Amino acid sequence: MKFTATQIAGILEGEIVGNPEVEVSKLSKIEEGTDGSLTFLANPKYTHYIYSTEASITIVNKTLVLDHDVNTTLIKVEDAYKSFSKLLEYYNQVKLNKTGVEQPIFMAASSSYGEEVYIGAFTYIGENVKIGNNVKIYPNAYIGDNTEISDNVVIFAGAKVYSESKIGRNCVIHSGCVIGADGFGFSPNEEGEFQKVPQTGNVILEDYVDVGAGTTIDRATLGSTIIRRGVKLDNQMQIAHNVEIGENTVIAAQTGIAGSTKIGKNCMIGGQVGIVGHITIGNRVRIQAQSGIGRNVKDDEVLQGSPALNYGDFNKSYVHFKNLPKLVDKINQLEKK
């Protein structure tokens, strides 16, 4: 797939300095640019590469002032980083714009789909499934009975969406995700054996939710596990039954959230965070990577450590912790005296 400088400038509403007919077919870092590649310059630390890059086209800020001529064709825009991101989004839309139903697939007669859909080979679609317009379902996906998938959803290869799930508009579910598996519910009987507690609820993803590869979201025991509008989940996360995550919260990889915990809006949670069950985390909370959360958290708290402390208190305590060997030596010397 090739694009000319004129086409790219048209998409970005940019100004061309150089050859308007030069073509690109790949992307590159500015320091690794080669003939036929497109790159961008947004960070001033990389400005010196503009004079040596071999990229055919470079997107730059309008404010860039050159010391001497460059070989690359420039497209000047208001914000190079945002424009490059916009171009990547456009490229993905073109690249992923498949339509049609490949064969073989299995789709129950009671199920239906809308217009401009793509359903990849070896996909299984169960009973009473409703699929909206412009949905892309890649090969080897599984869609369970009574699932509802709204418009503009993308489900990548090998993802599994269990029965009764509800997927909102413009969601992205990456490969290896499992949406709606049973929650971890067992109770001991008189003999001490653990018996399964039936998990009869479902999972709801509201609009504009992204779920990273390998992430699992368990169905509720009763009611729903709910991922609110605009939530972004990284790869390889575990979200247990009856969890609720508030709007526009972002959570990094390998975080685990135990059952029935409620997380507020606009939170940022780092990787490998462990959160116990049946607690409430407020809005706009920041949790640093590898923290352990075992209590309710108020709005706007910033936490680190395991068990997690206030971020400032953690850093003060860590200074003392690092100095413990020196303090022990001083105490030993004082005792000898």
Model description:
The structure is a single chain. The chain is of the alpha/beta class and 337 residues long. It folds into 2 domains: 3-95, 3-Layer(aba) Sandwich (Udp-n-acetylmuramoylalanyl-d-glutamate--2,6- Diaminopimelate Ligase, Chain: A, domain 1), CATH 3.40.1390; 100-314, 3 Solenoid (UDP N-Acetylglucosamine Acyltransferase, domain 1), CATH 2.160.10. Helix content is 15%, strand content 30%. The chain contains 4 helices and 40 strands. The strands form 6 sheets. Strands 8-11-14-17-20-25-28-31-34-37-39-40 form a 12-stranded mixed β-sheet. The longest helix is centred in the N-terminal third of the chain and has 16 residues, at 80-95. The model has no long low-confidence stretch (mean pLDDT 94). One of its GO terms (molecular function) is UDP-3-O-[(3R)-3-hydroxyacyl]-glucosamine N-acyltransferase activity. Residues 22-89 form the UDP-3-O-[3-hydroxymyristoyl] glucosamine N-acyltransferase non-repeat region domain. Pathway: Bacterial outer membrane biogenesis; LPS lipid A biosynthesis. Its EC number is 2.3.1.191. It holds the Pfam family LpxD.
